[in-house]
Specification:
Elements lengths: L1 H34 L5 H21 L10 H24 L2 H9 L1 H12 L6 H18 L7 H27 L4 H28 L10 H27 L2 H22 L6 H61 L1
Helix pairs in contact: 1-9, 1-10, 2-8, 2-9, 3-7, 3-8, 4-6, 5-7, 5-10, 6-10, 6-11, 7-9, 8-9, 9-10, 10-11
């Protein structure tokens, strides 16, 4: 029971860290890009990953975690895939309307469910599927505004969905298959993610914004927000791997939509973004969907736990029955000798 409660506390802690850090970095980056005029999202992400790697390297030197080497092919492909998925998401945002970009993010959940069902043989109950549908409906009502389609933007969105889903599924499966922690996997893969974004980021940002990150005039305030964003990103990246490793890619996506609702609410409160009754209605629907998803997941986990305990007790009974029978026969044979 102590191990189970400790695991549950670890999951709750990872979820809380993920929500708090992600919402904080979105508010920070929105202020940086919208109010201070720093639009270089991909380059900023590469800095996030480099700071994350150096922070973990420092933590390793202080023996805060143990490094476990992962074979170079796995960690390289995994790091490059995650870096490419971030690039595709940024390109999708650049070539599509905000509404279609939000639809792209919404499509990640059903596509993840489909991939896990087809390739990992994972089963999702009808109740969980229904709760996910309600959640997606709520987030769609709250965040999707316009849907302007174009061929290039649609292709980029599809590539972003596929690479993001595969990357998140691999985050979960690699941790379990190789028995590595989220910190160990992030430490090994962060340099490859940072490298591909560091090389491609300035060109991608210039292509999308028509501005050069190296020609930008950095003020003290902008530098302060960039440093703050990078520091928060360490917790964002770590909590992402923690949540996916301890739960599942689908749960992480559900959590992501909770963050979307919180960002909408905090954007209105702190940054005075426009907020309508439609936003409120969508957020309420999404909260109902998230509550249902959490309840059904918890109930199914308890049923599985009880089933495992029942199977374990039955196995113990089968193991002890021959011993009891042998003891009884020995006793009878001794009695007959007497």
């Amino acid at each position: 029971m102590g191990e189970i409660s400790g695991f549950q506390l670890g999951v709750i802690g990872a979820l809380f860290l993920s929500v708090a850090s992600s919402v904080s970095i979105v508010i920070c980056n929105k202020a940086l890009m919208s109010h201070l005029g720093f639009p270089f999202a991909t380059t900023l992400t590469s800095w996030h990953l480099m700071v994350t790697y150096f922070s973990l390297h420092a933590a390793l030197r202080f023996n805060l975690f143990e490094n476990k080497p992962i074979d170079m092919k796995t960690v390289t492909l995994f790091g490059l895939l995650n870096g490419v998925s971030i690039g595709f998401l940024n390109l999708s945002l650049g070539f599509n309307s905000i509404g279609f970009y939000q639809m792209t993010k919404l499509a990640i959940i059903p596509f993840t469910v489909l991939l896990e069902t087809l390739f990992l043989k994972k089963q999702f109950s009808e109740k969980i599927k229904c709760s996910l549908l309600i959640l997606l409906l709520g987030v769609g009502v709250a965040s999707v505004t316009d849907l302007q389609l174009n061929f290039v933007g649609t292709i980029l969105s599809l590539l972003a969905i596929v690479t993001t889903c595969v990357g998140q599924i691999l985050t979960n499966t690699i941790q379990k298959r190789l028995n590595v922690s989220s910190t160990q996997l992030l430490y090994q893969s962060a340099p490859f993610q940072a490298a591909i974004l560091f090389v491609s980021g300035p060109f991608l940002d210039q292509f999308l914004t028509k501005k050069n990150v190296f020609a930008y005039k950095y003020s003290t305030v902008v530098l302060g927000f960039i440093i703050l964003s990078c520091l928060i990103a360490v917790f964002v990246n770590l909590s992402t791997f923690l949540v996916i490793g301890k739960t599942s890619p689908v749960t992480y996506q559900v959590l992501g939509h909770l963050k979307t609702c919180l960002v909408l609410a905090l954007g209105y409160t702190l940054l005075h973004d426009p907020f309508t009754s439609r936003n409120i209605f969508g957020i309420l629907i999404a909260i109902v969907g998230m509550g249902m998803y959490s309840y059904f997941c918890t109930a199914e986990a308890k049923r599985k736990q009880l089933g495992d305990l029942s199977s374990l007790s039955q196995m113990k009974e089968r193991d002890t029955t021959p011993l009891l029978a042998s003891h009884h026969q020995d006793k009878e044979s001794k009695d007959s000798v007497v």
